[in-house]
């Protein structure tokens, strides 16, 4: 029996499909959505703004707000509620660290190019290989 499900969401369409899958298949379970923002860095993307921000917590919350709102909207379509958590760090690593508290993990996967996988890494692959519980990968 699956009682607790961790769903990783990054704001992408495949992440939304992963949440919909979890709600369809594990609707009776407690579903927790985890959004992981990148670590603060002056070198790349969204994390650059975080590194320069005086209010790091506020910046993290602002960057995660769209994902949180979308997760709650999707759950409402199913007449369900989900808990949403935000973490900072490398997404695959953070998801694996949290996985032991759940019965299963649901993640979406991107069909990224080889360059994307080399530079960004493949979160689904990291979770699949490192998770102490079963993982469902949704496309």
TrEMBL record:
Coiled coil: none annotated. Residues 41-139 form the Pterin-binding domain. Pfam families: Usp. PROSITE patterns: PTERIN_BINDING. Belongs to the universal stress protein A family. This is Universal stress protein. It comes from the Archaea. It comes from Halorubrum rubrum.
């Amino acid at each position: 029996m699956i009682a607790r499900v961790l769903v990783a969401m990054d704001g992408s369409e495949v992440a939304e499909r992963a949440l919909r899958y979890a709600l369809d298949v594990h609707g009776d379970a407690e579903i927790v959505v985890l959004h992981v923002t990148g670590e603060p860095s002056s070198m790349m993307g969204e994390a650059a703004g975080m590194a320069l921000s005086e209010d790091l917590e506020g910046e993290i919350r602002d960057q995660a707000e769209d994902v949180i709102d979308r997760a709650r909207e999707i759950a409402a379509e199913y007449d369900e509620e989900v808990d949403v958590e935000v973490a900072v760090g490398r997404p695959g690593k953070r998801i694996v660290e949290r996985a032991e508290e759940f019965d299963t993990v649901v993640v979406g996967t991107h069909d990224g190019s080889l360059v994307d996988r080399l530079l960004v890494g493949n979160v689904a692959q990291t979770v699949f290989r490192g998770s102490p519980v079963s993982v469902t990968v949704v496309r």
